[in-house]
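step=encode ok
step=design start
structure_in=
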């Protein structure tokens, strides 16, 4: 049996003008030592634990204002705004949105830490806007709550 001829393909299909580059290798995870948590006894301890974690992720010059500003942002660094909610009630969507807007106005990454977790509405809103959410346990170890937080924890600053 003779071989079947190949179907006709136009020149543009056979010889594309732009050949896409091969896929890039994934970026290796940053090399860092183990995170050393700070035991949380007060609200200030929660902020200190979050600041230490952000430094561990690779953010530089993380500072905490002496007095909490009206915006509610507890921590700042170049390209970063972060808020820590040390209350015993789950954080709601308004706090998540306010932090996100602060980050937008500063062209910065926004990160939220909470001791009591988040309401379902806050989680849903954070997923929509890509805001990383972390929960702090009393040992001071942050745990990622959503995909954005997983990505930040894996890749660092």
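sequence_out=
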């Amino acid at each position: 049996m003779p071989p079947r001829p190949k179907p006709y393909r136009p020149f543009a299909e056979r010889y594309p003008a732009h050949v896409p580059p091969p896929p890039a290798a994934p970026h290796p995870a940053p090399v860092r030592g183990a995170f050393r948590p700070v035991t949380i006894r007060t609200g200030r301890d929660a902020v200190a634990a979050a600041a230490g974690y952000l430094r561990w992720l690779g953010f530089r010059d993380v500072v905490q204002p002496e007095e909490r500003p009206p915006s509610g942002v507890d921590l700042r660094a170049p390209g970063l705004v972060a808020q820590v909610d040390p209350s015993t009630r789950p954080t709601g969507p308004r706090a998540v949105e306010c932090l996100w807007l602060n980050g937008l106005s500063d062209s910065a990454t926004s990160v939220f830490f909470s001791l009591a977790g988040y309401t379902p509405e806050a989680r849903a809103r954070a997923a929509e806007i890509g805001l990383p959410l972390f929960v702090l346990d009393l040992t001071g170890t942050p745990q990622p709550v959503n995909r954005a937080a997983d990505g930040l924890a894996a890749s660092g600053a």
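step=design ok
step=annotate ok -> The mean pLDDT is 86.
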